[in-house]
Amino acid sequence: MRRVQLATGPGGTGRTTGSALNPFALVTALDAGISPDTVDTAPASLDIPEGGGRVWHVTNAEGNGYGSMTLANATVDSVNTVYAQLI
């Protein structure tokens, strides 16, 4: 598991901005009845069409892919690509 220095914020030792928003997405998902045991793919990066020809390019902080994982594990490991698909 990756250790994170929360006091330093984004950068070389902190979580990325995307990771900081994951808890808010998690609460919204739980309120909508989505189980933390829901499994999704966890690629290293992901391109999500936004419309109007724009693409949201999402990456995980360390650039790693994880195969598939639960929403609970994506929260623990701060896997942005799982959260991007959830959103």
Account of the 3D structure:
With 87 residues, this protein is of the alpha+beta class. The model has no long low-confidence stretch (mean pLDDT 84). The relative contact order is 0.24.
State mean pLDDT (0 to 100 scale): 84
Spatial order of the strands in the main sheet?
1-4
Query: Main beta sheet, described?
Result: 2 strands, antiparallel
Order of helices and strands: HEEEEHH
The number of strands is 4
Globally, the shape reads globular
Class inferred from helices and paired strands: alpha+beta
Q: Fraction of residues in helices?
A: 25-40%
> In whole angstroms, how far apart are the ends?
24 Å
* Low-pLDDT windows of residues: none
Beta content? 15-25%
Number of helices: 3
* Rg, nearest Å: 13 Å
Relevant terms:
single chain; 87 residues; alpha+beta; two-stranded antiparallel sheet; two-stranded antiparallel ribbon; 3 helices; 22% strand; globular
Blueprint (SSEs and pairs):
Blueprint: H1 17-31, E1 39-41, E2 45-51, E3 54-59, E4 68-70, H2 71-77, H3 80-86
Can you describe this structure in just a few lines?
The chain is an alpha+beta fold and 87 residues long. The chain is built from three helices and four strands, in the order H-E-E-E-E-H-H. The chain starts with 16 loop residues before the first helix and ends with a helix.
